[in-house]
Please model this.
Amino acid sequence: MARFAYVVYCTNLGCSHRAEYKIASRWSDGVTAELKTYGLVCAECLPQAFRESIRKQAECRRAPKEILEPPGIYRLAPGKGDLELERLFDLEDQLRSSMNLAPSDLPTGQDREEA
Ligand SMILES: [Zn+2]
Model:
């Protein structure tokens, strides 16, 4: 019996864990809407990938009618369509609030996070 195995791996370079989360923004041009995916990541890579997605979303140029919402975190579920995925608002809040501690807000002596 061939059952469709649906295994997704973390898209972070060098990581071989299974992806558990999808980071994506709702995008619309006024006619169609879809999720624009930034990455599929494991729990370990999530904070970094989420931070990067926020930066990319902010830099993304949009046409006048285009809407691109801030990135959200969705729980990957095999066989579910993008718009059916469960969005993890609590996790987003948690990560966003930990990000508010920008390096410039911290006392000197902290490692800088510029890559
Ligand atoms: Zn990973």
Residues 10, 12, 15, 17, 41-42, 44-45 surround zinc ion (CB under 6 Å).
